[in-house]
Every structure is written in C-alpha cells, then in structure tokens.
Fold each of these.
Amino acid sequence: MKQILTDIEAGIQKSIVQQLFFDECADRNISIFVKRDDLIHSVISGNKWRKLKYNVELCKNQKKTGIITFGGAYSNHLVATAATCKLAGLKAIGFVRGDELNASSNETLKECASLGMELNFISRAEYAKRNDKAYHETIGAEYRSMHLVPEGGANYYGIIGCQEIMTEVEEDVDDIFIAQGTTTTSCGVLLSLKNHQRLHVVPVLKGFDSIMEMRSLLTRSGIEQELIEDLLKQVVVHEDFHFGGYGKHPQSLINDIEQFYSEHKLKLDPIYTGKAMNCMLDCVQKDEFSDKTLLFIHTGGIQGGRGLINYNA
C-alpha cells in the first residue's frame, strides 16, 4: 500500500507559497500570499489530490478494485479521479449528470475516457439522489468491489487530506480565502486553523448555505457538535461572488481574470478561483485588512477554464 502511494506521490510537487504585491497594500501593511496547490500535479492538481489521497489508501487497504464517484460534465474531480486511479492501478467509474451526454461531448469527458474511466450518464433526477444513503446502498450492492467517493471527494477522508494544506504554510497568516463547492476543502482547512485565524469561504453556487453544508459534512464525518459550532465561528461567508451561479462567468469576470494574469502571471479559472480572488481583492479595496496577512488557497481546476480565458492577453 505504501508503495502505491509513494509511486503516485513521486509525481506530486510540493506546494509552494508565493507572495503577491499590490501598491495599495504596502501603504496599509497588508501582506498577501497564495498557496499554489495548482502546481502540485499537471492533472491531479490542487485540492483534487488532497481529497483523493486517503480515499485511494482506503480503497487499497480494503482490497477494492476501484473507485466510483460523481460529477458534472466539466468536473475537475472526475478528471482527477480518472488520473489517480490509472496511476494506482484501480478501475474508475464516473456517474455523470446528464443522460443526453456522451464520452465525446466535451474535452473534460474525453479526457476522463482517455484515462480509462468508465462513464455512466444519468438523468438529472437520478443525479439529484447522489448524496442519498439509500442510493449509495443501491450502487454498493451493484458494485460490491468498488469504493464509493461522494461528489467532489466530500467525505471524511477528503477532509483529512485537505487538513494537510495549512500544515505546509510557514507564514503566520490572519485570514484565509478559499473558493467553496462541496465544502470539503474548507472543512479540512477549518479543522487545522489556529484560534486567531479566520476562514473566508466564497461559495460559487447561488443560494448556497455554506454554514449548513459545512455543519452537515463535519457531522457526517464524526466531529462533535460542540466543536463544530466553535469552529464555525471562525468562518466568514461571502455569498455575493457567485457571478450568477455555478458555471456562470460573465465577461466582466473573464476580463478581471485576464487582467490579473497579465499583472501577476497567475492563472485562475472562472468557475472557482477567479471568483474567490475577485472577492478577496474586493475586500482589500474596502480597507478591511490593514495590518493583516492574507492567504489565498489556489485549489487548481484550471482545466475548467479552457477556451474561456486568454492567458496571453
């Protein structure tokens, strides 16, 4: 088992912390750093490896033959799972939202198929049951030799993997910003915070109840309720930066991402990290963080912006 993970991790680069410089920050004694998890692997980048690492270990320890998971048509999680399973010698099955799709519908699905993932396209009504215990039991009965990983790696093992993000940060930061989807990464980061630190979550889904979803995932993962409520006091939710909802990317956001890249040579995507960075910079411009050190966690997912962002602009 250890050899399997060693073989995979041989291709994983250590995540670096990079400082960003803005003229308006110097006068107000604001330091901004970026945790570059987008650089740790060309395909299994960012939080995707964090969330899959211990699920793969569990899969191997239980002598399962592969991993089943869920995702949408442009899911970074599906691509990362396909690549991880290929490296680990495991079978990969992806349940994809949209029975009108096929393995050639877009570049993301083509990549999943080329990596050996078996794609099962299901209706949106069936996909809506993806987190139901009874539905998981039905799938488990049909695929007894497979380990089921929830959409986005949202389980205890995904959280534990994401806890390791902050252990790699040597800077004494005050406020941490992160894009939020399934809440797995934000829950892992939250569990590793020091008492004085605040976690700023930027949900990319419109109408998403971040606190409720984080509480639910932490509860399902066996964390005590009293501890959960104490931890959630360190969370600040920025619910107005979804830019219309999941997958929505107005031209104004595209322009901001391209301008940011031209100035800092740091690639963002319009689904997750571009929205979170927009939020953090908006907060800085509103003079909320004088004499503070900020950390932006880059969760990868650049493939989601292919064809949308001109990084040469």
Amino acid sequence: MLTHGRNQAILRDLFTLGDVFLLLAGAVIASLLRFDTFFPPDGFLVPTFMAPLLYLMIMIMIRGYQTLNPETMQIGLFRLLTAQLGTYALLLVFAYFAKVSEDFSRLWTGYSLLAGTFLLIALRVGVFVWLRRKGKAGHFRPRVALINSAPEPLIISQLRARAESHSFNIVHNHRIVPGAQADDSLRDALHNMRTAQPDIVVMAVNSSDKIRYADILDDIGAISSDLVEISDLNEGQAGDVASEWVILAGLPFLRRAMRPFGNRGWWVKRLEDVILGSVALILLSPFMLAIAIAVKASSQGPVLFAQLRHGFNGETIRVMKFRSMYVDKMTDTPEKVQQARRNDPRITPLGAFLRKTSLDELPQLFNVLRGDMSLVGPRPHATAHNQLYRTRIDGYFARHRVKPGITGWAQVNGWRGETDTDEKMRQRVLHDMYYIQNWSPWLDMRIMFMTLLNGFVHRNAY
C-alpha cells in the first residue's frame, strides 16, 4: 500500500516529541500542586522520566500516531487514553514489585495523569484547529504526480477520480502529446514535478513514447519519490513479471523505484549533516583559513572556485572548492569540463597537494550547511560529465535521488579520481546505488570513519 507522505511523517514525529515534553510538563504541574516545588522530589524522578518512555512504547504498539488526521480532526482519543492508563498501571505494578509503592503519592500520581492527559488532548485539538483555520490540513495528504501518454489510460482516469476519497493530492499531471513542442513541454513538466516534490510519481507512458522521449524521461529517475507505473505485460515486456506490485487508491501498479531513506530518514540525515557539519567546520576553520592564505599567496586568482554540478533531484548547484589550478589555464565551461589527469600542467604545486589529500573539498562544508550537499552521498559530477555518461550508463541519473556528498561509498572503496573509461564510471554508479538502497545512519558513520582513516589520500586523486 502506498499511502504515507513526508508531511505526514513530520506531523507524527512532531507530535511524538511534543507528547514527551507535555508528559514531563504534566509531572511538573503535579509537583507544583502536590509539593509546591517546580521539580519533583528525588523519589519521583524515576517515574517522571519513565512515564514518557512507557507512553511512547504503548502508543507505538497500538499505532496511536497512525490515526492522527488534521482534516477530519481525528485525534485518536481512545488510543491516547489507553496509552495513558496503561502507562500509569505499569508504573504502579513496577512500584509494587519494587516495594516502593508506599512511598508514592497518590495525589501526585493522579495530578500527573490528569495534567498530562489534558495537555496531550489540548495539543492535538490546538494544532488541528490551527491547521484547518489556515487551510493547511490538506498538506498532510500524500502528493502524487502523474505523467502519461495520450489518450489518457483508463487506470489514470480512475486514479484521478479516486483522489479525494482516498485522501491524496495530485500536485502535477502531464499528458505527453507528440508534436513540435513536445520535448520542451516534457522538460518543463519534469522541472515542475521536481518543484512539487511529490511523494509518488505515477507513469503511464506507452512504449513508443518511452523510446521517443527516452533521454528526457530518464530524468524522472532523479526525482526523490516512489516511482510506479502501469503494467506493460500486454506489450510483451516479460520483465514486469518480476516487479513488485503495489496498490494506490485500490488500483494496481508496478513499483520501479522506492523513495530513498523512506519518509523519515531524510530528516535524520539532515540532522546528522547540520550537527556533524557544524562541528567539523568549527574544528577545521583555523586550518581552512591557513589553506586560504596559502592559496592566495601561491598564485594569482580567487581563493575559492565554484563549479556547476547536478545535485538533489537533478537540479544544478554550485559546489565550492579551494582553487587548485592557475586561473589563466582554467578552460572549463558548463558545456565542457576537462578532468584533471596525472601531471596536469593546469594544477599549481599547492593545488596538487590539496587535491591529493582532498583538502580542496573542505569548503563544501558550507554547501552541506546550506543544504545543497550532504556529508555522505554520491559525489557530484560536473554537468558536462553527466550529460555524457547518462547516454552511456543505464540508470546513471538515479544517483541524484539523494543529495550529493563530500565523501561516499564509491570513494572509500577506491573509485575516485579520473574516470577515463566507462567501466570506472559504471563502478562508481554501482557503488552509489548500493549506498542509496542500503542507507542507514550507521553506514554514514562507517563511511566517514573510513574517510578519516584512509579516504583523504589516494593514488587516483590528482
């Protein structure tokens, strides 16, 4: 079933954090009422902090956050009360077997239960009323983008007709109509789809259009969403038999790609980038200042160099690096980029050291904090290289379904430096796709550790 969206995940996660805070606030209110002190007495600190943990455990078990719906004002009251009563019942059981029940204040326990329950309900009602008043309740529906051939397939017509009853929003709908302007129209549609940031992209494109617009449609693989399409079994494509069937609005589709990192992993990764990136920038700032002074003193030209590269969702970003080449020998253009090679005369002596040790990449920490890049991810390639290799390597553009990284799985496994053969680039892409499909915070930590251990200096870096 394809039903969840990122905004839904955000809403539930915020309620989870809010519930913890409010349950602690309820314990504080109970202490003020019972003991006339802001902090609970020492003997009540354990139940104060155990209560939120038990509550969350019960809520997860009974799927208490799954019922939240700002459109219908469904706050999951029954599950909320079940979790609260279950929490305090467990606390009393623990107290009994620990033989400390006689030390418990029944008034404090009752005040804490009532105050916490009131605050939990007030949070839900307040947030949902505010969302409905601002007209934002519908933002928490899954966002669906459609792209189909003309005439519109019946299954797409049925999907659009069921959008309201199945509570999802169609944020973009493009119908491919062959003609003189079809290419430009399709490119504009794909740009609009990226801007709309759909949770699900549904393709219903016939075989002839897939062939006719193959280069443009390949860009859909860079959109960070679930990608599904209608079956082509009637057109003799036996490969569809092995595909995964999914249901959207009660209709069957074939899954072609899953959203990277799921609905929640993206903010975990963003938190990781902001915290670790900020720490790295603070620790390395004196070192980066010294490099900047050395670059300025060793050759004429700016300290930093910005190169256009494709980033998340295939959008163009400006990637920062310490300048490592002589200004008058830098011949790169957006249409043509010459990769650095061994003994490249364009590279300054200091630049050769910076590139060999990957220290020229340190300014990309600013890209990370700005949100253009991540600490770990597929390395961003120059736009000219992308245009070249996308025609040579199947699925090449899918590496842009996540943010590019300063370091990556391919780099720590030795696939870095000049890609003078298609096989070298293919290995990079295979490693990038492995990372995207198997991402976890622990894999990121492993890659960063490997980078610190042996990833800065490599024989292929020049």
Amino acid sequence: MGQDEGRGQSAALAGARATALALEANVRRVIQGKDEVVRLALLALHAGGHLLIEDVPGTGKTVLARAIARSLDLRFRRVQCTQDLLPSDVTGVSVFDPRTLDFTFREGPVFTDVLLADEVNRATPRAQSALLECMEERQVTVDGQTHPLTAGFFVVATQNPVELEGTFPLPEAQLDRFALQVRLGYPDPADLAVILEDQRRGHPLDALAPVAGAEDLRALRAAVAEVALDASLRRYVADLVAATREAPGVVLGASPRAALWLARVGRARALVLGRDFALPDDLQAVAHAVLDHRLILEPRARLAGRTAAAITDEVLAQVPVPVVPTGPPPGP
C-alpha cells in the first residue's frame, strides 16, 4: 500500500478530504502558481490555527485571505493596521446609551469568521496585543465582560518585510500565536502571463463561488483531530522542538505551543493526502512554516548569515527519524 493511500478510511475522513481538496482547487483559481503555499495556508485553517503572511506588496496576500473566506461562504472583515489604531478599534467598545442609562457593547471587526489584519506590524504593540486573547481563546473581554467569537475564527495577518519605517516588529508572544507563516513570492513569468489574461475583464475573485460551508469546516477539523499520530512521532515532534532551543546562535527556540501546531498541521496534511495516520514526511513538510518564525537568533548569528530556515534544516537533519508502520493496524 502506498504511503498516500488511506488505511481503512472512514466515510467522515473521505468526506473531509473531499472538502479540503475542493477548497484547494477553488483558491488556486485566483492564486496562480503557488499550489504549495495555498495548501499550507489551508492547512492552518484545517488545523484550527491562524496564518501569518510575510511578503512584499502586490503578491496576493489579501486575495488569498478573501478567496479562503469566499470558498467557505464565511463572513470576512478587514482591519487596516496603522499607528493610530486602538485596541477598541479591533475588539469593540462599550458605549453609553443616554436613553437606557446603560452601556451597550458595539462589536469590533474581530466578530467575524475570517479576519484580515493587514500590515499588522504597522500597529503599535498595544493594538497588536488586542488580538492575543482573540486568537488563543476565541473570545474578547471588554470592561470585565467576556464575548465569545465564532468557533471557526481565523486570523490572516500580513506584514511587509521591506518597509520598516514606522513599523513595530511582532513580539515573540504574538508570533507564537500563528500556527504557520508563509511567503507567496513573485509569480514566475508563465504564471504572470496567465494572471494578466485572467484579469483582463475583471478579477477572478469576483466570480469565485463557495464550495463548502461552516459545517463542512467543522467536520474537517474534527476529522483532522482523529488522524493518528504514532507515539514515536509524538516523541519526534518533541525532539525537533527541543533541538531548536539547543541550536547554536538561537536565543529563543520553539515553544510547547509550536510542538502542538507541528503535530496538528502534520495531521491535517496526512488527511489531505488521504491517510488516517501521519508520517514523518508530514511533519517535515510543514516544519519550516511552523517553526521558522518562532526562532529568535542572536545578533551575532544574524550578522554571520545564520537564518531561522537554516537552523530548521539543521534540526531536521540531526534528529533521528522514527520508522512508523504504514500498513493496516494489528488485529485484536
């Protein structure tokens, strides 16, 4: 049996995989030539995490977020982050109503399904921190009152790595809230030629129709949680994360939260490939997207040319890879 074939696939897993593949195909209609990035972005969604996109302007960051929301017929709202953005501009505010002599809570843009925090590093640390509780606990606390967000709440944040004037780098606590970080990059000439033709009379996003809904997303996430992760793979994840903390030149390595996301996103990849069990390949394929943005290097290491990606490569090469059974489970 090939390693991308199912092992006793259940109807639920097969249905979840069909949803995941339909979402990928739909989003790829508007994001040309970036199939692996699209898959990684959707894996963050399937695993229940949030996505950070770091890239230069004009590469399709906003289009990707909108395409994901439209493909699932989810509510979408956008926050344009600037230096004068206040936490209440994100979460909402209690307003005094003179007619009732009471305060009424007015919801902010986080009360949606998919939130685009555009150029998040242009917001001040105070405004950035407004997303911490939202992303981790799916709730907002204002004036001592807690307001729940939707269970499928998904944040897509973007930042421009080139324009640094007037920006505030995301602190480690904020970076650690993002399950994955991806970069779209420029399209190659052939894909750019296709984009030029596709947008001759309008943007393909305008004609993009949903292929699934909120219920399908809930079923997909439930199926991801059922994908088996062998005990040897759980130890492999723990060893990979620990190795990032011991790597030369690293001030801050990956956290236990990073280990959780590595396992969850690895499970999501296994499901998309049609398996009800994860393999080392699944973890290795998503390791850079999960780990790189969490690694903080010493200034001396950065000056010497060391990068987070190089450290992840070293860790993947050094940590022994377990042998995981890929056949049917043993009988009783």
